Amino acid sequence: MKRVVLRSVEPPRPVTTVRYVECQKNYAAAAGCYVFDGCREFMPSGALGNAAFTCAACGCHRNFHRKVET
User: Fold this and answer.
1) Sequence-ordered list of residues with C-beta below 8 angstroms from that of 64, at least 6 positions apart, any chain
2) From the CB of residue 4, how many other CB atoms can be counted at a distance below 10 Å?
3) Hey, how many other C-beta atoms are within 10 angstroms of the C-beta on 23?
4) What CA–CA distances, in Å, run from 16 to 11, 55, 60, 69, 70?
């Protein structure tokens, strides 16, 4: 007798584009104030390693920039 294994097939995920826009890093958090640097868009400072996650404009990590999925 032959055994048949049935697997559920997940539907394909829709293609989304991710952009990182204005920087949300609060430079005066220790003082209890809100001060932002005004960086409007994430630009990687390099293509490899940690440089790909550092912004060339403000020097912040990519996680400080607001993520927009379209």
Assistant:
1) 23, 24, 25, 55
2) 4
3) 24
4) 15, 22, 24, 6, 6
Does residue 27 sit in helix, strand or coil? coil
Task: Identify the CA nearest to 20 among candidates 55, 48, 49.
Answer: 55
Q: Which long-range contacts (CB under 8 A, 24 or more apart) does 45-50 make?
A: none
Give the pair of three-digit tokens for residue 30. Answer: 């220790």
| Tens digit of each residue's pLDDT (9 = 90 or more) over 54-67 | 999 999 999 999 99
Encode pLDDT of 9-53 as tens digits. 888 888 889 999 999 999 999 999 999 888 999 999 988 888 899
